[in-house]
Amino acid sequence: MASRTMRAVVVKKPGSATGLSIDTIAKPVPKDGELLVKVRSFALNRMDILQRDGQYPVPPGTPETLGVEFAGDVVEVGGGVTQFGVGDRVFGLVSGGAYAEYAIIPETTAMRVPDEFTYQYAAAIPEVWFTAYQALHFITHLSEGEDILIHAGASGVGTSAIQLAKLAKANKIIVTAGTDDKLKFCKSLGATHGVNYKTESFKDKVAEITNGKGVNVIVDFIGAGYWDDNLASLGLDGRMVMLAFLSGATVKETSLAPILRKRLKIEGTTLRSRTQDYQIQLRDAVVKDVVPHLVDGKLKAVVDREYAWTEIVEAHQHMESNKSIGKIIVNVA
Question: 3-class DSSP state for residue 173?
Answer without folding.
Answer: strand
